[in-house]
Amino acid sequence: HWRNRHDPYGTGAAPIPERIITRPPSAELRPEQTDQDSLPPYDILDTIIERYMEN
User: Fold this and answer.
1) Pair 49, 39: CB distance under 8 Å
2) Is the pLDDT of residue 54 over 80?
3) Which of 52, 33, 54, 34 is nearest to 44 (CA)?
4) Measuring CA to CA, how many Å separate 43 from each of 8, 35, 39, 40?
């Protein structure tokens, strides 16, 4: 959202469409698939990754 509110070139156009910012994250190419279909919620996943990296 920050990038869309700060328009250094004064074009008035949002460089990133709002629908891209607000849609659920997905690294897959299948229609209607989201990351949380196969992963835990990000707050839990962050904790798992943090503990893995620190130990």
Assistant:
1) no
2) yes
3) 52
4) 33, 13, 11, 8
How is 1-55 classified by DSSP, letter by letter? -HHHH--TT---S-SS-HHHHHSPP----STT--GGGTS--HHHHHHHHHHHHH-
Task: Give the Cα-Cα-Cα angle 50, 52, 53 (nearest 5 degrees).
Answer: 65
**Residues 26, 32, 38, CA angle at the centre, nearest 5°?**
55
pLDDT tens digits for 18-51?
888 888 888 777 888 888 888 888 899 999 999 9
49's tokens: 């990754």
pTM of the model: 0.45
